[in-house]
Amino acid sequence: MKIGVLGAKVIGGTLGRKWAQAGHTVRFGVRAVDNAAVQVMAQELGATVGTVEEAIAFGEVILFAIPGNAMEETIRAQGPALAGKIVIDAANRMGGGPMNSTATFAAHAPQAEVYRAFNSLGWENFENPQFDGVSADLFYCGPAGAGQAAVEGLIRDVGLRPMRLGDLSQVGLVDTVASLWFALVFGQGMSRQLAFKVLTR
């Protein structure tokens, strides 16, 4: 699968690495295309680096792993190019208001198939998702269908177990999981190597 990863820092870089190692073709979309660290990482992975526009044009799946405060501007500018793409919103908009960009996608990229995922755990859990041999769960939401299968496959490729909470009407619930992670890690001083597991009988 061809994946455009917008952002190449800890979230985008870690997920891009995992997906490239799983056999996907990755193109990072960044503002500073000539950034030496990003170029070295891409070369190590057999990935490529381009502009945000180039990464969106390239990918069947587009991961938004850019700073939350850049989401609205980027979506407004790139909305038409996202038509027909599977979009994964992993960015958290902090400082008040919704953490997710669902409404902005709906307004400016209505033909994109949007999922909310990879926003509720720290990047360390994407790098190492195993806890005593057990895979952590990743809560996500988005429409059912072919896009769902693709997103769940990408979650599994990272080493996590996908747990769909429903369609995008459940985006607030996914963000509540993120808030719980923040409360435990930053509020209670627990390790960033903290994840969640659903247990049933």
Describe the structure concisely for a colleague:
The protein is an alpha/beta fold and 201 residues long.
Explain this structure to me?
There is one protein chain. The protein has helices at residues 10-21, 36-45, 52-58, 71-78, 102-108, 123-127, 146-158, 171-187, and strands at 2-6, 25-29, 48-50, 61-64, 86-89, 113-116, 130-131, 134-135, 137-140, 161-164. The termini are far apart. It contains eight helices and ten strands. It has a single domain (2-187), classed as NAD(P)-binding Rossmann-like Domain (Rossmann fold, 3-Layer(aba) Sandwich). Helix 4 (71-78) links the parallel strand 4 (61-64) and strand 5 (86-89). With 201 residues, the chain is an alpha/beta fold. The strands form three sheets. The protein has a six-stranded parallel beta sheet with strand order 3-2-1-4-5-6, sandwiched between helices. A two-stranded antiparallel ribbon has the order 7-8. Strands 9-10 form a two-stranded parallel sheet.
